[in-house]
Amino acid sequence: MTNLIGNTARRSFDTTADQVFSLDGELPVRRIGFGTMRLTDERPADPAAAPVWRGPADRDGALAVLRAAVDLGVDLVDTADAYALGESEELVAEALHPYREGVVVATKVGVVRPAPDAWVPLGHPAYLRQQAELALRRLRVDRLDLLQLHRIDPEYPLADQIGALAQLRDEGKVRHIGLSEATVGQLREADAITPIASVQNMYNLGFRQHEAVLDYATERGIAFIPFFPVAMGAHAGPDGPVAEIARELGATPAQTALAWLLHRSPVVLPIPGTTSVSHLRENVKALDVRLNAEQFARLSDLEAAPEGA
């Protein structure tokens, strides 16, 4: 594959024409997934600070959103054992089990929640294996489609953490392995240990501090799963540049922001979350929004948040 590092930030791949991506080359999913983190009882104004501590107050509403997602063709559902202390995984199973053919459920292990405002990496291999076993029970499956290391714990060698997940895969309990919030160096190190199918980092129009990770993933054919994909920062105002291009396209600003991600690289799989079925429909329809090269360049030229913001 051609080396794309340093050359993708302004390139339009017109990848909405390819609405499906195959994880590790063999597990196809549509390129708009669904993230379950927002299906919790507590959602402060800043989504990045969400405690994600309890299950949803409106459980029936959350179940309806998950079922509607699959009805609309979403076949990648992302969750984690740390979301609402395992309730998120239970919610996914309650809504979707037995899973339709082709539905891929991704979950994450490697973070403990000792308090509502605490997210603490814990990469002890025995703990990772235990949490994977609990995820199997809560999701009611014999094998996890995609198991991602939620955070890399600096207290343990990465080889030991990835090795625990690889052992689960060798036992038939995990199909594919991924990372979350990883650097290029960490991704490269992990990929040398065992095939890495995905990396899940925060990335959107207003926050582009993982450009190098996305470029590496593009070069290697690794799925890049941006969380908080619709956040647009100062560009999101009704008279802002995103809204202007949205009007040109006959789309919404959220759809335009998602379309930019889809055009940014063919490996990008956004997982926008919502508690609203109408917003869910809006997000899924972003697959049909086509940016031309000039519109893509105008969005790419917008100033992102400064490094460290």
Automatic annotation (TrEMBL):
CDD domains: AKR_AKR13B1. SUPFAM superfamilies: NAD(P)-linked oxidoreductase. Pfam families: Aldo_ket_red. Residues 31-302 form the NADP-dependent oxidoreductase domain. Gene3D superfamilies: NADP-dependent oxidoreductase domain. InterPro entries: AKR, Aldo-Keto_reductase, NAD(P)_OxRdtase_dom_sf, NADP_OxRdtase_dom. Keywords: Oxidoreductase. The keyword Cytoplasm does not apply. This is Aldo/keto reductase. It comes from Yinghuangia aomiensis. The lineage of its organism: Bacteria, Bacillati, Actinomycetota, Actinomycetes, Kitasatosporales.
